[in-house]
Automatic annotation (TrEMBL):
Native organism: Duganella rivi
Entries under InterPro entries matching the protein: NAD(P)-bd_dom, NAD(P)-bd_dom_sf, NAD(P)-dependent_oxidoreduct
PANTHER family listed in its UniProt record: NAD(P)-BINDING DOMAIN-CONTAINING PROTEIN-RELATED, PROTEIN YEEZ
Residue ranges annotated for the NAD(P)-binding domain, each copy included: 7-152
Gene Ontology terms for molecular function: aldehyde dehydrogenase (NAD+) activity
UniProt cross-references to Pfam families, sorted A to Z: NAD_binding_10
Organism ancestry: Bacteria, Pseudomonadati, Pseudomonadota, Betaproteobacteria, Burkholderiales
The protein's name: NAD(P)H-binding protein
Single GO cellular component term: cytoplasm
Length: 310
């Protein structure tokens, strides 16, 4: 079996690529510059170039669309053309598209318990773009697999709330921030568990529906403090208390720093509990890969350079 990974240098793309290689797949990775390693066949090309995409996807059975504009820049002009190129490549090769989904598709009207078929009425610009991506995939008729999960964390999840909002990568844990409103639960997803779930679903092959969408339960932080206390334990500082995330800074810096503008837009997900159901996933797989929280947090901090490497 052959796969093409878009975003292989990112968190979820890299995790899925490594798992597929370990399972005996031939894995190609599209990148704009020459790269080597990780057992991948690196191909120079651009996801914004349709010819590059179609050429790279020749002979593959799976296209992993895990590419996003870095730093949230130019989302409105880049994201939809890239998914259109992936659709064209999938149509030419007969491949299934695997898309990491998000909770951004949903608005507060379906909170706090979000089921797989909940209406998608986003309240943010980025959420509207995600909904449009999925609509184009569904309307295209290409086989599609979407796996939705909570906020990512993991050894290689650099562009995440964990790394950008809770701790400071590359430094020992001296302070922890908590974006949650007091007592509000939050859903997290450990990247290696997400990748394992995706690959297990891919291995179901033709047993999947033409357009298949699943959600993960991940790690549910019932009161918004379990993740921060796990960080303190992993750092060997169980007495360390989390401080409130400085939301005011995102308002001040938003005009100058695109990342802060995007963080501010997602604040609604931290002011009320949002918990996605994994009932459909359990019906297919019988279980969900789940690394214990303390183990997952310890490995994440190691990967971010906050703890000595194993």
């Amino acid at each position: 079996m052959e796969a093409l990974i878009l975003g292989a240098t990112g968190g979820i793309g890299g995790e899925v690529a490594r798992l597929l290689v370990a399972r005996g797949w031939r894995v190609k990775a599209l990148h704009r510059s020459q790269k080597q390693g990780d057992g991948l066949e690196w191909i120079i090309g651009d996801a914004m170039n349709r010819d590059d995409m179609v050429r790279a996807a020749q002979g593959v059975q799976l296209i992993v669309h895990a590419v996003n504009p870095p730093g949230y820049r130019n989302w409105g002009t880049l994201v939809l053309p890239m998914i259109d190129n992936t659709i064209a490549a999938a149509r030419a090769s007969g491949a299934r598209v695997l898309l990491p989904g998000t909770v951004y598709n949903y608005g507060p009207d379906v909170f706090p318990h979000v089921y797989e078929d909940a209406p998608q009425r986003p309240v943010t610009r980025k959420g509207a773009i995600r909904v449009e991506m999925e609509r184009r995939l569904k309307d295209s008729g290409v086989p599609t697999l979407i796996v939705r999960a909570g906020d990512f964390f993991g050894p290689k999840a650099g562009n995440s709330w964990f790394a950008q909002g809770l701790v400071k990568p590359g430094k020992p844990v001296a302070a922890i921030s908590n974006p949650s409103a007091p007592g509000v639960g939050h859903q997290w997803a450990y990247l290696p568990d997400v990748a394992e779930t995706m690959v297990r679903l891919v291995e179901r092959g033709q047993a999947l529906p033409q357009f298949a969408s699943y959600q993960m339960a991940g790690h549910w932080d019932a009161d918004g403090t379990q993740m921060t206390t796990a960080i303190a334990r992993a750092a060997g500082k169980p007495e360390l208390k989390a401080s409130a995330f400085p939301w005011w800074l995102t308002w001040v810096a938003a005009p100058f720093v695109p990342v802060f503008r995007e963080l501010r837009e997602m604040r609604y997900l931290w002011r009320q509990p949002v918990r996605m159901s994994n009932a459909r996933l359990l019906a297919v797989l019988g279980g969900e890969p789940h690394t214990p929280l303390d183990v997952a947090v310890h490995r994440t901090l190691q990967g971010l350079g906050c703890l000595p490497a194993a």
